[in-house]
């Protein structure tokens, strides 16, 4: 058995806007564990492919892009958030847009792109533990994780959360447009042949509709420290 397998992992999967990023960050802080934002990797590849002018359906070109894109997570100067550097460029703000989410979802349906990102994701598993946020953390990347959670919320609530979040960032979005985009992205993520969005058989399902963030954190924390 390799050493990394003994490092505990909490996987947090779920659809867009279910709270994965928020809850993962808070629970990782409480546990003192590392954090893997796997969605940022797919967003970074989608962004790099777009910046290089690639056709996102060109499987070979996008796969080469996934294999060669340098992605680095770095604490911001004030230490309050994490910046994502893509080939040396701070692309954090561009990566959070719904356009970047849609590009990520498109390239994430290519099996060889997913394969290209496996080792990088496994490399985050280091002591004292890892909280891994994504779509296939509990099913494909860390199937042996001791703790698995699948977060959900109604599509209407997830769209409202995303609307508020993007508005606060000064982006021009509409609630109805966002709900359509989120539902289209979830449908694509859930229906793809490889590593579709679905709960692991041994995941604890948490419906966060109407549930305050602190309550979700407490519920997820209790999965690891009952
Ligand atoms: N339980 C909750 N109640 C209200 N707002 C939430 C809740 N969980 C997350 N949010 C907010 O919703 C937005 C999207 O959450 P995020 O963690 O980015 O979701 P995901 O990573 O699943 O896409 C953020 O602005 C976050 O603060
Ligand atoms: N483990 C993962 C993480 C993300 N993806 C794909 C599918 C998602 O629609 C996009 C963006 O993921 P991300 O978690 O950043 O998106 P949300 O914050 O949930 O809206 O990437 C994936 O296929 N597998």
UniProtKB/TrEMBL annotation:
Binding site for ATP: 14-22
Localization of this protein: Cytoplasm
Reaction(s) the record says it catalyses: dCMP + ATP = dCDP + ADP; CMP + ATP = CDP + ADP
GO molecular-function terms, A-Z: kinase activity
Matching HAMAP family: Cytidyl_kinase_type1
Every Cytidylate kinase domain range: 11-224
Transmembrane segments: none
Gene: cmk
Highest classification ranks of the organism: Bacteria, Pseudomonadati, Pseudomonadota, Gammaproteobacteria, Lysobacterales
Similarity comment: Belongs to the cytidylate kinase family. Type 1 subfamily.
EC number(s) from the headed UniProt entry: 2.7.4.25
Protein name: Cytidylate kinase
Swiss-Prot/TrEMBL keywords: ATP-binding, Cytoplasm, Kinase, Nucleotide-binding, Transferase
């Amino acid at each position: 058995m390799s050493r990394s397998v003994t490092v505990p992992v909490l996987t947090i999967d779920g659809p867009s806007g279910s709270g994965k990023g928020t809850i993962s960050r808070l629970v990782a802080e409480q546990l003192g564990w590392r954090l893997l934002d796997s969605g940022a990797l797919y967003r970074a590849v989608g962004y790099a492919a777009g910046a290089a002018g690639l056709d996102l359906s060109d499987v070979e070109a996008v796969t080469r892009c996934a294999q060669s894109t340098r992605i680095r997570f770095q604490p911001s100067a004030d230490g309050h958030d994490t910046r994502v550097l893509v080939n040396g460029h701070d692309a954090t703000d561009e990566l959070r847009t719904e356009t970047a989410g849609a590009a990520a979802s498109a390239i994430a349906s290519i099996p060889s792109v997913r394969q290209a990102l496996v080792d990088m994701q496994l490399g985050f598993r280091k002591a004292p533990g890892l909280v891994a946020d994504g779509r296939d953390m509990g099913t494909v990347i860390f199937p042996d994780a001791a703790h698995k959670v699948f977060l959900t919320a109604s599509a209407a609530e997830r769209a409202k959360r995303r609307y508020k979040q993007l508005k606060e960032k000064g982006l021009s979005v509409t609630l109805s447009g966002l709900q359509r985009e989120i539902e289209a992205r979830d449908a694509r993520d859930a229906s793809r042949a490889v590593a579709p969005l679905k709960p692991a058989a041994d995941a604890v399902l948490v419906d966060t509709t109407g549930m305050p963030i602190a309550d979700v954190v407490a519920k997820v924390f209790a999965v690891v420290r009952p």
